C-alpha cells in the first residue's frame, strides 16, 4: 500500500503539520502507544530534532494493557509492555501517536490511562493509517498519514526499518 | 511471567494515580483464618489497585467458630458471586484442599507451617531487583526453619531459579530431613553469612512453639542474631531480608534493619506489585 519512499514523505508531512500547530513544542509532549506506536513516535521525534532543529521534544511511551476493555474476552492472555513517561502531563498538550487507527478502543483506553499522569490541557491523535469504516467509538485522528477503506477481514500491517527491516505498509 | 507483569505493576503503583481498571468486574474474598497485617493489607491494596471489589473477613468473627466446615464457608461466599478467594489458614494444605473442592480461583496466602508462595515470589523479585538475577546467587535462610512457611516456599522458588540455598539456625529449629530438599545446613551463622549473597532472616515464631526450642531469647539473639558489628566484619556486602514482623534485637538489631543493606521495606513495596501480578494473571483465566 505504501512504499518506503511514500512513508518517508508522509513522515515529513506529519512532522510539518505538528510544527505548524505546536511551533516550538515548549508545552507539547509526544506519547507513543505501546506496542506498535512507539516506532512512529520515535521517527517523528528524530525528524523534528534532526531535520527541523527542534530540541528536546519530550517523548513518552504509554502501555494501555491494564486499561483495555477486552480483558478476559479474548483467547490470548494480554501481555503488558513498558510504560515510560518521565514527566507530568498536567496542563500539557498531549499528542498520542499510534500506527493504525481501527476500532478506536485503544485510543479510548489511552485516554483513560493518561489521566494517571495528570490532566492534559488538550489531547490530539496522530496515526499513520486510518481505517475509515471500522470505528466502534466516536474517535477521529487530528493528523493522519493515509486513509484506507479496508474491509473487516483484511489486515493492515505496518513495517518499520528498525524492526522488520523496511518501511512499508501492506494490506493483507 | 509473574516477575515481568510485576515490573509493570511496580511502575503503576509509583504513578501519581496508582490504579488501573483491569479487574473492575471481578470480586475477590480475602479469608484469613489466621492473624495477619502485612499480607492482608498487601493483598487488599493489590486488589484495590486493580479495581476489583473486595470483601475481607477474619475467622475470629465468622461462623467457622460455630462449627461450619471450610468447604461450606467458602461455598457460601462463592454463592454470593465471588470470583476469587485469597485464603490464609492454620492447616497445611488448606488452600490446595479448597482448590480441589470448590469452583473458584484460590490464592494461598499462607497455610500453617507449610507454604507462603507470594512471599517467596516477592523475596525472589526483591533479590532480582537488587542483584539483577536470582540464578547462581547464594541465599542463606536463618532462624526458625521448622515453623516457617516462608522458608519452604523460598527454598522451592530459589532452587527453581537456580540459586543455591543454605539454612542456618539452632538444631532444634531445623527440620530433620531438610537435606532431602537439596539444601545444606550450616550451624555457624558467621560462616553462613561469609558464604552468602543474601541472608533472609526469619522471625522466631513463638506462637507456634509448644515447647522450648532454645534456652532463652537472649541466647538465640547472641548465636543467631545479626548486628551491625557482625555485618561490617564480613568480607563483602550482603543483602539482608526479613519477611516481617521483625522482633528488633532478636533476629536483627535496629541498625541492621534500617541499614542500606536491608531491603525489608522494598520487600513490602514489591509485595503489592507481585500480588497484583498474581491476581491479574489468575483473573485472566476466569471465564466470563
Write the layout of secondary structure elements.
The complex is a heterodimer of chains A (about 170) and B (about 290).
Chain A: H1 4-22, E1 28-33, H2 37-50, E2 59-62, E3 93-101, H3 105-114, E4 122-131, E5 143-148, E6 156-159, H4 161-164, E7 168-171
Parallel strand pairs in A: 1-2, 1-3, 3-4, 4-5
Antiparallel strand pairs in A: 6-7
Helix pairs in contact in A: 1-2
Chain B: H1 2-12, E1 27-32, H2 38-49, E2 53-58, H3 70-78, E3 84-89, H4 94-101, E4 105-111, H5 117-131, E5 138-142, H6 149-160, E6 164-168, E7 184-185, H7 189-195, E8 198-201, H8 217-224, H9 228-232, E9 239-241, H10 254-257, H11 264-283
Parallel strand pairs in B: 1-2, 1-3, 3-4, 5-6, 5-8, 6-7, 8-9
Helix pairs in contact in B: 1-11, 2-11, 5-6, 5-11
CATH architecture of chain A: 3-Layer(aba) Sandwich
Give the low-confidence spans of chain B: none
Which structural class do you get from the secondary structure elements of chain B?
alpha/beta
DSSP strand content of chain B:
15-25%
Q: How many structural domains of chain B?
A: 2
Secondary structure tally, helices of chain A: 4
Shape of chain A: globular
Uncertain segments of chain A: none
Terminal CA distance of chain B: 23 Å
**Count of individual beta strands of chain A:** 7
What portion of residues of chain B is helical? Answer: 25-40%
Q: What does this 3D model show about the protein?
A:
The complex is a heterodimer of chains A (172) and B (288). Chain A is an alpha/beta fold. Chain A has helices spanning 4-22, 37-50, 105-114, 161-164; strands spanning 28-33, 59-62, 93-101, 122-131, 143-148, 156-159, 168-171. In chain A, the strands form 2 sheets. Chain A has a 5-stranded parallel beta sheet. Chain A has a two-stranded antiparallel ribbon with strand order 6-7. The longest helix of chain A has 19 residues, at 4-22. Chain A is globular. Chain A starts with a helix and ends with a strand. Chain B has 2 domains: 2-112 and 268-283, 3-Layer(aba) Sandwich (Rossmann fold), CATH 3.40.50.1370; 117-257, Aspartate/ornithine carbamoyltransferase (Rossmann fold), CATH 3.40.50.1370. Chain B is built from 11 helices and 9 strands. In chain B, helix 4 links the parallel strand 3 and strand 4. In chain B, helix 1 packs across helix 11 and helix 2 (38-49) crosses helix 11 (264-283). Chain B is globular. The mean pLDDT of chain B is 89. Chains A and B meet through loops of A and helix 1 and helix 11 of B.
